[in-house]
Amino acid sequence: MSETENPISIRKIGHVGLYCRDLPKMVDFYSRLLGFQISDVNEKGMTFLRFGADHHSLVLAKMPEDEQKKGPGAQVIQQIAMEVANLDELKRIRRHLLAQGVQVRGKIKHEGPGNDYTFDFDDPEGNRLQFFSDM
């Protein structure tokens, strides 16, 4: 494989997740003021919002207490999720990232909302990224 070839084929940014100090205030801001529609709220209180045909484009999650204590330096990106074509592609990408020494956070998992299969990994500065496929 040449340096210009990349074995990862991302279809689109699936969603961005933000940690929120005041989750109800953030949900109100994005829904009432910016016009996002609430698609779902899970058992942890994570709120899934959309502005198009996808189930969600933005996820708002309560910031963990240890991050809140950091003040202005707290990590606010909860995750950036990227969609790939199918489960086989997801498995292939995970193997590739592991072979490249990327910090992968566990196995491929199936969790809601929807029918997504996902795995999480870290970028070099510790931001949580996610690949997913809904097939």
How would you summarize the topology of this molecule?
Elements: E1 12-20, H1 23-33, E2 37-41, E3 47-50, E4 58-62, H2 65-68, E5 77-83, H3 87-99, E6 104-110, E7 117-122, E8 128-133
Parallel strand pairs: 1-4, 5-8
Antiparallel strand pairs: 1-5, 2-3, 3-4, 6-7, 7-8
In short:
By secondary structure, the chain is of the alpha+beta class. It has helices at 23-33, 65-68, 87-99; strands at 12-20, 37-41, 47-50, 58-62, 77-83, 104-110, 117-122, 128-133.
Give a verbal description of the structure.
The protein has an eight-stranded mixed β-sheet. It is globular, with a radius of gyration of 16 Å. The protein has 135 residues and is of the alpha+beta class. It is built from three helices and eight strands, in the order βαβββαβαβββ. The chain has helices at 23-33, 65-68, 87-99, and strands at 12-20, 37-41, 47-50, 58-62, 77-83, 104-110, 117-122, 128-133.
Percent of residues in β-strands? 35-45%
Show unreliable segments.
Answer: none
Shape: globular
Strand order of the largest sheet: 2-3-4-1-5-8-7-6
Helix/strand-derived category reads alpha+beta
Cα end-to-end separation:
27 Å
> Which radius of gyration do the C-alpha atoms yield?
16 Å
- Largest sheet, strands/sense/barrel: 8 strands, mixed
Order of helices and strands: EHEEEHEHEEE
Number of helices: 3
